[in-house]
Amino acid sequence: MKILPHQLRALKIYKQVHQIKKDAFENLKKQGFFEKLDEAYQDLFKKNKIDLKTAHILKMLFKNSSDMRVDNPMFNGAMLTLDKIIQILETDGKNNEDNRTLLTLSTDGDLYRNPKNKYCYSMKSEGKRLKILETLGDDYIKTNKIKEKIESTSNEAVRKAVGIINKKSKYRLKLKQPLIESKLGCGYRINGLYKLKK
Asked: C-alpha angle with apex 123: 117 to 176, nearest 5 degrees?
């Protein structure tokens, strides 16, 4: 197939554009531009105190963005930095999980840590408070959802019940931090310092 003059001209210009891009990239590299850019990405992620879930969502957004292609030198540093952060967070998460204090909620309603004869909070007669512990896990659950799940009368009743659980479990199990933690707008979850086995 014969290549027409305008096609040859276009190919020539196309190659020149790529050469300009390559030369500009090399000049920026020599000036330390990309190192500074990577440092800026690292500072941004550090400043925002990114957690593992946020990091994974960010990675998904980067992958779906045409600007954040791996072959784009302006942005691939952000993806590489994010990958490092995810790796660190996943490692830390495993270590933290291994170091969590194990608590057990037995089928007959005893909340305890070993040795059970020394650290035990019997909840078998505590109705809705027992249901709250059976409902909660590692992720936050909104107060309204907990209220519906345990068939409580109000969100305020849930808050009071959580307060009682924290007070009694801290005293009877000798816990240094509250068993249940709360976050405004998110609800309640089991404190990350503890692993609750049900």
From this structure: 65
Three-state SS string across the chain, please? Answer: CCCCHHHHHHHHHHHHHHHHHHHHHHHHHHCCHHHHHHHHHHHHHHHCCCCHHHHHHHHHHHHCCHHHCCCCCCCHHHHHHHHHHHHHHHHHHHHHHHCCEEEEECCCCEEECCCCCCCEEECCCCCHHHHHHHHCCCCCECHHHHHHHHCCCCHHHHHHHHHHHHHHHHHHCCCCCCCEEEECCCEEEECCCEEEEC
**CATH architecture of residue range(s) 101-197:** Orthogonal Bundle (1.10)
For 126-160, the pLDDT digits (tens) are 889 999 999 999 889 999 999 999 999 999 999 99
pTM here?
0.53
pLDDT value of position 156: 94
pLDDT digits (tens, 9 = 90+) for 33-90: 777 777 777 777 777 777 777 877 877 777 776 555 545 666 666 677 777 777 776 6
Taking the domains of the chain in order of start, what are their residue ranges? 5-97, 101-197
